[in-house]
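[Meeting: bench + compute handoff]

Bench side (C.D.) handed over the final construct sequence. Compute side (W.E.) agreed to return the predicted structure before the next meeting so the bench team could plan truncations. Sequence as handed over:
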Amino acid sequence: MRNLIILITAFLFTVSFTGTNAIEEIIVSLKSGNSSQLSTYFDNTVEITLPEKSNSYSRNQAEVIIRDFFTLNQVKNFEILHKGGNMGSLYCIGTLITKNGIFRTTIYLKQKGDRQMLQEIRFELN
């Protein structure tokens, strides 16, 4: 019984730690406007909301959409407003500061196997 408790605790710690690393690396990607680094966390399909469009995209399409968004809106910084999680999901709400405006940004990740995968990202103009 004791071994089972230790095993479960180690598993939960690993899942939590992996998820925390994923969201921290996504935040670094947002701060630098690095769509290539960000896309390494994309699930097979990603829901993207931009001021002018919203849709589900394949991983490759999503990278192009985000790259174009970062090209049009040169990123200056990303400031975290709130982070949290629940039952294998993580989210982060923040402010993306760009050359062309400020965007309220929401990110949703879900546990898939041993990784946290980005399911949805929203950029809403403030």
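W.E. noted at the follow-up: The beta strands are 42-50, 53-58, 75-86, 89-98, 101-112, 115-125. C.D. will use this when planning the next construct.
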